[in-house]
Design goal:
- With 405 residues, this protein is of the alpha/beta class.
- It folds into 2 domains: 4-56 and 355-403, Urease, subunit C, domain 1; 58-349, Metal-dependent hydrolases (TIM Barrel).
- It has 13 helices and 16 strands.
- Helix 2 runs parallel beside helix 3, helix 5 packs parallel to helix 6 (220-237) and helix 9 (315-325) crosses helix 10.
- The model has no long low-confidence stretch (mean pLDDT 95).
- It is an enzyme of class 3 (hydrolase).
- InterPro entries: Amidohydro_3, Metal-dep_hydrolase_composite, Metal_Hydrolase, Metallo-hydrolase_Enzymes.
- Its EC number is 3.5.4.42.
Length: 405
């Protein structure tokens, strides 16, 4: 594929020509022009879109590439019901099996690319037993795919920052080694001291000038209390727009007045929420968030690991699950679910130059579907996936020579 080329005869999923066909001119990895009947310059490669639906590359807002067992033999899950059971079971399995975070993260990242994801945020365990071994593996994957996949790495303390001495020093090393974001976990339930835990996390984030993405599983009033403490620090330290709260189950279980007061603060401080839209756990209310200007986006969480047999690198599937969890049925409401794994996710994670417009990076997906809603429900094989202006998958199969280094 040449550096300048043209995709013809595609239908944008939104906009004034949603019902008509356009062409997309790509040059130097960017969208040079988009519109009907673009000129065919001599010598320029032309790819016929054959009337396919044109989508932007998908965004995975929250996954754990380092943990996955993708492509491996089936893992028999007999873990106990508590969060700490899952944490300790995973630590034991990874230590005993020699789980290779580099090879496994590469396998799942390639599967994401094949299904149309071109930007991705992954949490990586920083562990006092394994040190930075898992981070090193995912850093190698990020480097191997750097030309076709934008990957943000969150340095994630899976056991909290206080319970295992030395975790804070390892997190500092991880941020220096290339992690983009500081992670955190349940300051009250896991660390047992939300004030000390949050103080340590925010001090680290400020010292290394990194944003924060915190897992907050804490339920009801306890979660609301922790969330309030977190928002106090965002406000006091001027970290507006630099914090994501993942899961935030408490917001799905609070009385509306208490919930809405927190939503108002979240919107005012530009703190975004990430949901995986689990089927059996309270979730932040999508439409209440939209009404108040709170950014809510989506992700898978773990995919085929010791925690869960579920998950898929297909973000159209995740968008459909988000739509189902929130009871979305109208075509325009299904578009809101797609926003959670595309434009809203890109904004929340800070991925720039995103979208289907002139000057945006050329991250494109073609599918055989009538409409966006149809694409989410049917999830057809990707006819073409373009990342950074290069074809990386065709008819559901990776183009090997473009992502091997």
């Amino acid at each position: 594929m040449t550096n300048t080329w043209l995709i013809t005869n595609v239908r944008p999923h939104a906009g004034p020509r949603a019902d008509g066909c356009v062409d997309v001119s790509i040059a130097a990895g960017r969208i040079a022009a988009i519109g009907p009947n673009l000129p065919r310059e001599p010598g320029v490669t032309v790819e016929d879109g054959a009337g396919a639906l044109l989508l932007p590359g998908f965004v995975e807002g929250h996954t754990h590439l380092d943990k996955t067992l993708w492509g491996m033999d089936w893992y028999r899950n007999e873990v106990g019901p508590k969060l700490t059971d899952r944490i300790e079971n995973e630590r034991r399995y990874r230590a005993e099996s020699g789980h290779d975070a580099g090879a496994q993260s590469l396998a799942l990242a390639r599967a994401f690319l094949q299904a149309g994801t071109t930007r991705l945020r992954t949490h990586v365990d920083i562990d006092t037993d394994a040190g930075l071994r898992y981070l090193d593996g995912v850093l190698a994957t990020r480097d191997a795919l750097r030309d076709v996949l934008d990957m943000q790495i969150v340095a994630f303390p899976q056991s909290g920052v206080l319970r295992r001495p030395g975790t804070d020093a390892l997190l500092a090393r991880a941020l220096q080694a290339g992690a983009d974001v500081l992670g955190a976990l349940d300051p009250a339930l896991i660390d047992g001291d939300p004030v000390a835990s949050l103080n340590l996390s925010f001090e680290l984030a400020q010292r290394y000038d990194k944003p924060i993405d915190i897992h907050l599983h804490e339920p009801g009033e306890l979660g609301a209390f922790t969330l309030g403490l977190l928002l106090d620090r965002v406000e006091a330290l001027g970290m507006q727009g630099r914090v994501v709260v993942s899961h935030a189950f408490c917001l799905g279980a609070l009385p509306e007045p208490a919930r809405d007061a927190l939503l108002e603060r979240l919107a005012d401080l530009r703190v975004a929420l990430l949901t995986t839209a689990p089927s059996s756990t309270p979730v932040p209310p999508l439409k209440a968030c939209l009404q108040r200007g709170v950014t809510l986006f989506g992700g898978n969480d773990g995919i085929r690991d010791t925690w869960t047999p579920y998950g898929s690198p297909d973000m159209l599937e995740r968008a459909m699950l988000i739509a189902m969890r929130y009871g979305l049925r109208r075509d325009d409401d299904l578009a809101l679910a797609f926003d959670c794994v595309s434009s809203v996710a890109a904004h929340a994670c800070g991925f720039s130059e995103y979208g289907l417009h002139q000057g945006a990076r050329a991250d494109l997906v073609l599918v055989a579907a009538d409409t966006l809603a149809h694409a989410l429900v049917a999830r057809p094989p990707r006819k073409l996936v373009v990342a950074h202006g290069r074809i990386v998958a065709r008819d559901g199969v990776c183009v090997e020579d473009l992502i091997e280094h």
